[in-house]
Design a protein that fits this description.
Helix content is about 45%, strand content about 15%. With about 425 residues, the chain is α/β, with parallel strands linked by helices.
């Protein structure tokens, strides 16, 4: 029925024993909620000599990744450093079905071209955290269109025969929609089958995913057992959630998302506005700090003599350094301290969301900083307009930043945000 490529099982691991053991212990303790079937069995496999096949799969439904998404790829890089085969799977086929996870309505499918274009941006954003260009043990970037598009109707029937309708209806979103008399489309049942088959096609030993993908990953575990006659580990990672409110930390709509394609200044600021209670998990899931260092951070947070803001500055430095380098992170810190802690810019300022504005003159008028285009041009000519504390002229390019602060004189400020 299916044909597969045999993977090389010789583990040519160049790490010393101490570093190998450290990485394995981190993989078993850090940023992980659950490992199926058990942590002990995974540890046994990782201590062995077999070269395992490990993947993260995602439908590139947007062009931006946030630091919560990055957690899984940081984990994948640890597996790669241990010498295992790692795969970044782009769902250019499954995105056209639409994953119903957490959706109370059928998801709008994308074209393959849209997904592939988004994936290019993803790969660029992931390079600071996973050594995609490593030649000794490369990262395999694969697209599931390559095998899913080749399945015939007989293959689909055979895949479907491994599951019941009742099992599919156990998915929360299907169950809710069914109870609310909302449509559940037949093609949506195929999504977990297709994602499950990814594991078969790649001969996967370990799948890394968030808890929201557990159902799909377990589908793959069933299919690997059926077609490959082996156990597949499901490695479920933590999601970034506020420990008090249980809200997602990374939310574009709430303005709290920290995205990998942000400028160093914007990334630094977005981390600094995170609530204090989020600090430990952000250190754990989004930095390279050791577990011991993070335990010390928790102790400091319990000390009423230490200002959590100072700890958060170190957190922001740690994260921004990963994506922009240490020098740029330090500059972002200095700019943040100058603008916000020294009160050059007030804590509360008006936010203006860009719509059709294409130049600085339109922004000055539409935001209310200038009463007319003539006055806006005059303000620019006289040097009374600054962007992020720097004087600008009428030729200022608004496309360089996703977010910036305009200052007119000493008292008038507007934060400009691209919608």
């Amino acid at each position: 029925m299916f044909s597969f490529t045999k993977k090389n099982n010789n583990n040519k691991n160049s790490l010393d024993l101490e570093e190998k053991n450290r990485l394995i212990e981190e993989l078993l303790q850090r940023s992980v909620v659950e490992i199926l079937p058990t942590k002990d069995k995974l540890k046994e496999s990782l201590l062995g000599d077999k070269k395992l096949n490990i993947y993260i799969g995602a439908d590139a439904t947007g062009s931006s990744l946030h630091i919560g998404h990055a957690t899984n790829y940081i984990i994948l890089e640890k597996f790669r450093k241990l010498g295992h085969n790692v795969f970044i799977l782009i769902g250019d086929f499954t995105a056209r079905i639409g994953d119903p996870t957490d959706k109370l309505a059928a998801r709008v499918p994308l074209t393959r071209e849209q997904v592939v274009e988004n994936a290019k941006d993803w790969i660029r954003q992931l390079k600071p955290i996973i050594d995609i260009d490593n030649k000794e043990n490369k990262v395999n970037i694969v697209y599931n269109h390559d095998w899913l598009s080749k399945l015939n109707f007989e293959d689909i029937i055979d895949l479907s025969s491994n599951f019941t309708v009742q099992q599919m209806m156990e998915r929360d979103m299907f169950e809710k929609r069914f109870k609310e008399n909302k449509p559940v489309f037949l093609h949506e049942f195929f999504y977990p089958l297709m994602q499950g088959y990814d594991s078969v096609a790649l001969d996967i030993d370990i799948e890394i995913c968030g808890n929201d993908q557990k159902f799909n990953a377990l589908t793959g575990r069933t299919l690997v057992k059926r077609y490959k006659n082996k156990e597949k580990f499901v490695y479920i990672t933590t999601l970034l959630e506020n420990p008090i409110t249980k809200e997602k930390m990374m939310s574009k709509s709430l303005g709290t998302g920290v995205f990998l394609n942000m400028s160093s200044d914007e990334m630094f600021e977005k981390i600094m506005i995170q609530p204090d209670e989020n600090i430990p998990q952000l250190y754990t899931d989004c930095t390279h700090k050791s577990i011991q260092d993070i335990e010390e951070v928790k102790i400091k947070l319990s000390d009423t003599q230490i200002n959590p803001r100072d700890i958060k500055i170190d957190l922001a430095l740690s994260i921004v350094s990963i994506y922009h380098g240490e020098d740029e992170a330090l500059k972002a810190k200095d700019r943040f301290v100058s603008l916000f802690q020294n009160k050059i810019i007030p804590d509360e300022i008006k936010t203006f969301h860009l719509k059709d504005e294409t130049n600085i003159v339109d922004i000055l008028v539409n935001s209310g900083l200038s009463i007319s285009k003539t006055k806006a041009r005059k303000d620019l000519e006289q040097g009374t307009i600054k962007v992020d504390q720097k004087s600008i002229d009428i030729d200022f390019d608004i496309s360089n930043n996703n977010e910036f602060i305009i200052q007119k004189g000493k008292k008038d400020f507007v934060k400009v945000v691209k919608s």
